[in-house]
Each structure stands twice: as C-alpha cells, then as structure tokens.
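tool_log.txt
---
The assistant was asked to compare two proteins side by side. It first ran the structure predictor on the initial sequence, then on the second. Raw inputs and outputs are pasted verbatim so the downstream comparison step can read them without reformatting.
(1)
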Amino acid sequence: MRTFASASFMALGLSGCGAASAITSVVTAPVKIVSKAGDLATTSQSEADQKRGREIRHGEERLGELDREHRRQAVKCNAGDVQACTKRDAADAEIRALMPSVPYEQR
C-alpha cells in the first residue's frame, strides 16, 4: 500500500512530465487486467441469447437436411432399394433425436 501511495504522489508531482503517464499506467495496469479478465470470464445475456439462437438455427437447418434425405430415401425404398430403407431409417432416428432440442413454432 505504501508503494501505491508513493507512486500516486509521484504521479501528482510529475503531472507535466512524461514519467507521470508511465507511472499512472503502471499503477492502473492491474485494475485494467482484472477488469478485462472479468469481462472474458462472464457471458452477457445478449451473448447467451445469440448463442442459443445460433444453436436453434443450426438444429433447424440439420432437420431440414434430414427431412430431404428421408424423403429421397423413402422414394427409393418404396421402389425396392433395401439400402435406401436403411438410410431412411437412420435419417428418421436422427430426426427423432434432434426434435426435442428445436423449439416448436405455432403458425
């Protein structure tokens, strides 16, 4: 604490000098570092909302891809392609797994 007080008095005494700004920088640096670390460690509500929105959008996009794949493979399966039936069932299983994570919108 004594060093801090000495540096503060020196900064006041040397206010017209370039050394004062250097001392002030040295004195305020720990505060700035702690403040920056706090900013990096916390997530604001808007950042959390943006992240959740991105997750939902990616989930919806994946559901759309799976739906198209399911429909393509269903047509081939109905034509007798056994591999297409397996792919259709895999797409269906992934759709069912993703559904709870994507919110439902009423239109």
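(2)
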Amino acid sequence: MGKLVVTEYVTLDGYMDEPGKWSFPFWNEEAAQFKFGELMASDAQLLGRRTYEGFAAAWPTMTDTGEFGERMNGMPKYVVSTTLDKAEWNNSTIIRDDVPNAVSRLKEQYDRDILVAGSGVLLETLRQHDLVDEYRFMIHPIILGHGEKPLFRQGNEATLQLVDSKTTGKGVVILTYRPA
C-alpha cells in the first residue's frame, strides 16, 4: 500500500506562497539530493489545480533536467480539480469527485509514495480526512512577514511525531513527521 507524503517548501514564519520567489538562494546539492531521492521513491504525484498548472507549464519545457525531469514528466499525476477541463501533461488524470475515496484508492493502487507538493487547499482536504501518512517540510531561513498561503489553516488540530531531521549547509531544516 502506498504512503501519501506531503512535501512542502516553507518559510520560517510558516508560509508556502510562491517558493520560486524565495527558495532559490537556499538551494544546494544537499537539497537537490533530498528532492531527487524523494521523487525516485515515489510512484505518483497528487496535485491541486494551481500547483498542477504551474508544474505542467514548466516541466515539459525543461530540457536539461536529466533523470529528475524524466521522472517528473513520465510518472502518473493526479490533479484534484472541479474546474479543469483537461489535463494534458503526460500521464495526468483529473479527480473531480469524492476526493477522500479517490485518494484512498490511489494508496491501494501504488506500492510506493504518492507525493503531494504545494497544493494548500488539497492539503487541507487530505488532513481533514486523515489521509496524510507523512509530512516533509523544508523550512527555509527566511521570514516573509505576510502571505496568502499559510502552511496550515485554522482548525483540524493534529499531533505529529518527528521521525527525521537534517539541516543543509544553506540553513534549510528538513523535518519529517508522521501523525502520532
């Protein structure tokens, strides 16, 4: 049975807004190896519409991303959306209805991880239905002071157990938690 893994870039003050604008100064080989290992250990991706659209616009046009890019573009992708008409990125399927049951079926279908990146609205749905098996947060040493997308919205309290932590040479703390 697959494990649903939420993986997020987060600021020190808890925002996940547009990481492309603030995370790159902290990128290094350690972060790249972590993301590479994470992707290679996964069978599929589960994405919200906005994250999917951003990924689908960027990844197919990248030509020098090697094995990582090949995996991103080739692996099955599931996008949760009630407004998207079609999903044209390779191996993409739209989930429109009954998200909790659809995700439970995905977990039964795959043996390895199913990655959820970004996708704040989807993350809340998954948390509400206790579908997340593991959280991986890359906490970046930057304070935005504002944002539209806090990592967690109010409600749906949860207790987590720390199962791993590491720090990159650029000061990014990678924390892995599982529901307690």
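---
observation on (2): The CA atoms of residues 144 and 154 lie 19 Å apart. The mean pLDDT is 94.
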